[in-house]
Amino acid sequence: IIAKSSTLAFTKPFFRAGLLNRTSLFKAGIAQLYYQMFGADHDQLERVRAELGELTRGWSRSEVLDLVEETVEEIISPLVYAEALSIIDEHIRAGRRVVVVSSSPTEIVIPLCNYLGLTEVIGSRPAIDEAGRYTGDIDFYAYGPGKAEAMEEMAEAEGISLADSFAYSDSITDLPM
């Protein structure tokens, strides 16, 4: 839907808020450049997941939610593919449900989708401690087989025929989907 990893898209606001330092910002920039030039394979996404978990350990979930909500239009508007919006609109006009399935955390995917007028999301869920801070672990990782399993569970629970559904991807790691 957007021309950048949705997680990496928010690195500048996180930096401005003091959540990231210059080294982290530089690493995110390199990762984004690589992603744009070559896509993302399994090993790269696993490395990014581990680094993001370590990086976000101790961050306040509510602070992240507020920051993403405040900056979503500024960050996402210039990155949205017009073709993706056209396809989404076509599905909505045809009466089809549109569910965005992303390996990015729901704290980023939900505001992004709300901005685009979409409300159904499957995303990764970082583990949160009792104080509302990220632990660095992930309760659910919507990636590869996990993404496919989450889609199958939703389809089963809501009577959706996956055989009659559409799916779009920008990564070979979505092949199980």
By DSSP, the count of extended strands is: 3
Bin the strand percentage: 5-15%
Strand order of the largest sheet: 1-2-3
Helical amount: 40-55%
Shape: globular
Q: What does the main sheet amount to?
A: 3 strands, mixed
Based on secondary structure, the structural category is alpha+beta
User: What is the CA-based Rg, rounded?
Assistant: 16 Å
**Could you give the distance between the termini?**
16 Å
Mean pLDDT: 87
Classify the oligomer: single chain
Q: Report low-confidence residues grouped into runs of 5 or more.
A: none
Number of helices: 8
Write down the secondary-structure element order: HHHHHHEHEEH
Layout of strands and helices, then pairs:
Blueprint: H1 6-9, H2 11-16, H3 22-38, H4 42-56, H5 61-76, H6 82-93, E1 99-105, H7 106-115, E2 120-128, E3 134-140, H8 145-158
Parallel strand pairs: 1-2
Antiparallel strand pairs: 2-3
Helix pairs in contact: 5-7
Summary keywords:
3-stranded mixed β-sheet, globular, alpha+beta, single chain, 8 helices, 177 residues
Structural overview:
Helices cover 53% and strands 13% of the residues. It has helices spanning 6-9, 11-16, 22-38, 42-56, 61-76, 82-93, 106-115, 145-158, and strands spanning 99-105, 120-128, 134-140. It has a three-stranded mixed β-sheet. Helix 7 (106-115) links the parallel strand 1 and strand 2 (120-128). Helix 5 (61-76) runs parallel beside helix 7 (106-115). The two termini are 16 Å apart.
Short summary:
With 177 residues, the chain is an alpha+beta fold.
